[in-house]
Amino acid sequence: QVQLVESGGGLVQAGGSLRLSCAASGRTFSRYGMAWFRQAPGKEREFVASINSSGGSTVYTDSVKGRFTISRDNAKNTVYLQMNSLKPEDTAVYYCASGDRDFGGPFDYWGQGTQVTVSS
């Protein structure tokens, strides 16, 4: 079955950077789009960024544009989220997700999440 395993979360000061990774297994990674979501305490899960199967197309939510970059390495079956200029409001559990399409949702497969905490 499809498995997604996130890593790279942690505690960072405001203005700092982190890179999240999501390792995928269970099917041909290069055929499917990938995405990152996040859920802050007391809030609903929200979309952060997505990337198509080849890596040539990306979409971001407005609050992270210019600060976050989603990318993928199909040879390593891994998708990344480079997060720069982090703000306390970026604090959340970050989830990797995938569906059965080249790009976009619905997202049927989810990782367990990785905690990102940004201190002020």
Radius of gyration: 13 Å
What would you call the shape?
A: globular
Percent of residues in helices: under 10%
Global mean pLDDT: 97
End-to-end Cα distance, whole Å, is 40 Å
Count of strand segments: 11
In terms of per-residue confidence, which ranges show pLDDT below 50 for 5 or more consecutive residues?
Answer: none
- Beta-strand content bin: over 45%
> What is the string of helix and strand elements?
EEEEEEEEEEE
Largest sheet, described in full? 7 strands, mixed
Helix vs. strand class: mainly beta
Structure, explained:
With 120 residues, the protein is mostly beta strands. It has no helices and 11 strands. The strands form 2 sheets. Strands 2, 4, 5, 6, 9, 10 and 11 form a 7-stranded mixed beta sheet that branches. A 4-stranded antiparallel beta sheet has the order 1-3-8-7, with no helix packed on it. The radius of gyration is 13 Å and the shape is globular. 31% of the residues are buried. The mean pLDDT is 97.
Itemize the secondary structure elements and their pairings.
Elements: E1 3-7, E2 10-13, E3 18-25, E4 34-39, E5 46-51, E6 58-60, E7 68-73, E8 78-83, E9 92-99, E10 107-110, E11 114-119
Please summarize what this structure is.
The chain has 120 residues and is an all-beta fold.
